[in-house]
Amino acid sequence: MTYPVLKGAGYVLIHTPDMIVQNGSTCTVERATNPDSEFLKEVSNHIRSYEDVVNYMPNQVYIGNRRPEELRDLPMPWCEQKIEGTRNGKFGEIMPQDEFIALMQISDAFDLVKLSQEFIDEVKPKIENNYPEIAPFVGKLKGDDIEEGKELVATHIAEGLYHDGKFVGYVKRAHDVDVNLNAHTMFENLVVKASGVLSAIQMLRHSKIDPAEIDYVIECSEEACGDINQRGGGNFAKSIAEIAGLQNATGSDTRGFCAAPTHALIQAAALVKAGIHKNVMVVAGGASAKLGMNAKDHVKKGLPVLEDVVGGFAVLVSENDGVNPVIRTDLTGKHTVGTGSSPQAVMTALITSGLDRANLKITDVDVYSVEMQNPDITKPAGAGDVPEANYKMIGALAVKRGDLEKKELKDFVSNKGLPGWAPTQGHIPSGAPYIGFLIDDLTTGNRNRAMIVGKGSLFLGRMTNLFDGVSFIAERNTGVTEETSGISKDEIKKIIAESMKKLALDMLEE
Questions:
Q1: 46, 298 in Cβ contact below 8 A?
Q2: Comparing 197 with 485, which gets the higher pLDDT?
Q3: N or C: which end of the chain has fewer CB within 10 A?
Q4: Under 8 Å CB-to-CB from 365, ≥6 apart: which residues?
Q5: What angle separates helix 236-244 from helix 97-107, to the nearest 10 degrees?
Q6: Model confidence at 197: pLDDT above 80
Q7: What is the pTM for the complete model shown?
Q8: What is the 3-state secondary structure (H, E, C) of 128-192?
Q9: Cα angle vertex 191, ends 9, 161, to 5°?
Q10: Quick one: CA torsion of 78, 83, 86, 87, rounded to 10 degrees?
């Protein structure tokens, strides 16, 4: 049986210091409910510079310049350990805020983003130099008189855009009364689209595929775009494809909270396996609402606000090329309606159901990529080390099944797991951050099998209390790209000869 392959990946982080205070949900809610709070007075003093963000080890891991395993040797808190980082990495880049604001205007199809001429004059040359892929759209960068925008922001008719603490523009509402098209929602959706475009560009650069060869796009972030009659109608996927230059692609959006990326990757693999599409891009923009989500805890403990980047990624799933890691479409796991919500039931459904179909043990997987949240962010907020907790549960399940001795549990966590490095952008840390490394590890590296696990908390949508999750196994490519029937050429010749002989005899009898 031939399987689709993971052919390329791109990862981006966008440093958005002003958006933490102006647009992140924690600061926005605090400003509305407690405008004179000590937290709001103090938070700006805890925001990192772009240089600090670039020189932060987990961020360098995210864009592929350092390996996740290197984090094990770095004392925590990692934010106190400065390293020498670079903007561009093996898998992607860390974009500064001014260029991202410009990319938001480029991504705006309805003239909603207004920027000052001074800001445009400063940022336009950077966009032209750094992103030749979007040259056809750079003409959309234009300056306006933004003075009236200050009043619009004050009356919540527009959402302000700030850089280095200075008002540089705003996002207008797209409708006078439709809350689904208000300024805040349009701002959030343009952040998703622009970060998705950047992710697509990085994936295209690093996979070296012709954009014209991508024929389908699946977007899997956690936002929704639509209007009063269909507030989640979409379509982020096609809007991203348009700016990224994917002229032969169509697409659609997949939603499933944090599990959505793994759902989307399985769907992409199914489309390729079925022969419907040859090259499918799975892409996710980031979430501005989650900027500074745990800022109160970070500020209280004297730490910098570590949720200061918007994340994004894009992954290319293609027909088997005999080289890149295959997605075993026959070895997926899923949390069903009837699974239950206990940790043991969840892990059993996600981890073992695929393995059992191939008579594999939990220990037969070389590495698991789970919820790869950065513990530097989550531990001060009281959420602990999320990846480590997941690996301990998988290891405990292995012991229960007899796949592992209890005394080997500690080694299992270090041998089969990875330290977390991804920003807490909901869907961004969920399984997908490892795929760039996975492609290397299962081609030129010494690993042969990996499992990607995505889990989602559906109760957040207030439609069900059910848990959710899916998983799939990726393996080193054996080099076999075509399905074989198991019949040799000589056997085929014999069958044809016998058929022709029978046909001749039948004709003679007539």
A1: yes
A2: 197
A3: C
A4: 355, 416, 449, 450, 451, 473
A5: 110
A6: yes
A7: 0.93
A8: HHHCHHHHHHHHHCCEECCHHHHHHHHCCCEEEEEECCEEEEEEECCCCCCHHHCHHHHHHHHHH
A9: 140
A10: 30
Bridge partners of 311, per DSSP, are 13
Q: Is pLDDT at 195 greater than 80 in this prediction?
A: yes
Domain spanning 3-473 has what CATH number?
3.40.47
Phi, psi of 498 (to 5 degrees): -65, -35
Model confidence over 208-228: pLDDT tens digits? 899 999 999 999 999 999 999
Per DSSP, what are the bridge partners of residue 160?
Answer: 170
Residue 507 has pLDDT above 90, yes or no: no
Q: Which residue ranges make up each domain of the chain?
A: 3-473
pLDDT tens, residue by residue, 330-355: 999 999 999 988 888 999 999 999 99
Positive or negative CA dihedral for 183, 53, 236, 433?
A: negative
> What is the CA 406 to chain-centroid distance, rounded?
34
Whether residue 358 contacts residue 326, with contact meaning beta carbons closer than 8 Å, is answered with no
Q: How many Å apart are CA 157 and CA 137, to the nearest integer?
A: 27
Buried b (16+ CB within 10 A) or exposed e, 240-259: bbbbbbbeebebebbbbbbb
